[in-house]
Amino acid sequence: MTQTLLELLDSLPARDRLEGWWNAPIGTLDAHGLPSSGLPVFSVWLARRAGRPVLALVPDPEGSFQEAGAWFRDDVRTVVFPAVETLPFDRLAPDEETVRRRLEAIDALGTGEPVVCFTSWTAMTRPTLAQEAVRRWGFTLKPGQSYTVDDLLHRLTTLGYRREALVQGRGEFSLRGGILDCFPPDRRRPLRSEFFGDELESLREFEVESQGSVGDIASGRILPAAEVILTPEAVAGADALLRGIDFSHTLPEVRDHWLTDIERVRSGAYFDGIEGFQAYLDPSQPTLLSHLPHDALILSLDGRRSLTQAEQREQEVQELVAVEIERGELPRGLQSGLVSIANLRQAAGRWRQLEVARGADLGSLDLGFEPVDAYAGRIDAFSDRVRTDARAKARVLIVTQQEPRLRELLEDRDVYP
């Protein structure tokens, strides 16, 4: 009988100890024997077998995310929570794709279902939306349900969507008669909702260029358009905190730019770079961990090295802020807008953690994976390896996106997979 890859992993010698760990009270399990190439496979297996979310802290979140999606696109949902390229005090709008992925990640974790979220310590230092805010203001559109259009417009505006005559980009919405268009940040195409009175009759995706519908969908989740939500309460709270910023030693042009943006915040208006004031709009500084269910698992690969790198970056940012304050390029009394690595480490202690080291420490669990040689451009060496393993009656699983061509090359060398 043919077994799937996930079923093959069930026979790992470490299976029993791993199962005991994820079913035990909160604690840390030290392990080794998991090269970075095996991480995507193992993390998906862990999420599926444990039946809960897995937060994977890895050196290369994007690479691991892409590999996991290629292996298990339909088995377990995978998302990535990337780092924001800009710093909060730069007051520059984050990359649209980065925001989309971060919002998609927190929404996926909030379901509590098996999902793997790849991220890094550095990515988590940038606060995100509070779980309560996403639950309160986010909503789902579903045909046959009744909605008050005025309430939907209020929610969209609060979530940071801009009203336009035609929807042409993410974070925009339009209303024409009983047709409400909106473009959530986590979707590839915008949504078109057609109402008859308060009842949603149809929900479809449409193309931006032609504005033509391309197909019905069963439901549509509407997430915030940015990693900040402007409510009257948040704006009022920010106003008091913003008064503590000292511009007495700031360059005139820098002070003017800051004061202009502060007035925008006080007016409750969204603008490019408002994420830089997140620490004032939500002083609790919620992080990705705020969205992690209590029974979730944290998988950390090469954690010591990753933590050291994150702490070094934290120190560099602190030094940069000090220099810019001294030059008058930043005001004094400014909140950095970043969560410290120390606070993140303390918060992470509330979950079960699997710490996977590069080397084998005394008493650590061997997960049973081994790295293999790189065979790019070395088809002869690869065919020799497959032939040798096959003669030894070993089970060989070859994963490739070029199966016909690889099969042809192997058969030319008398290897018949």
Mean pLDDT: 91
What is the helical fraction, as a range of percent? Answer: 25-40%
Strand order of the largest sheet: 3-4-2-13-14-1-15
Content-based structural category: alpha/beta
Number of helices: 15
Residue share in β-strands: 15-25%
Major sheet: 7 strands, parallel
**What series of H and E elements makes up the topology?**
HHEHEHEHEHHEHEEEEEEEHHHEHHEEHH
Number of strands: 15
Shape: globular
Radius of gyration: 25 Å
Q: Flag low-confidence runs.
A: none
Q: What is the CA–CA distance across the termini?
A: 17 Å
Features:
417 residues, alpha/beta, 7-stranded parallel sheet, 6-stranded mixed sheet, 15 strands
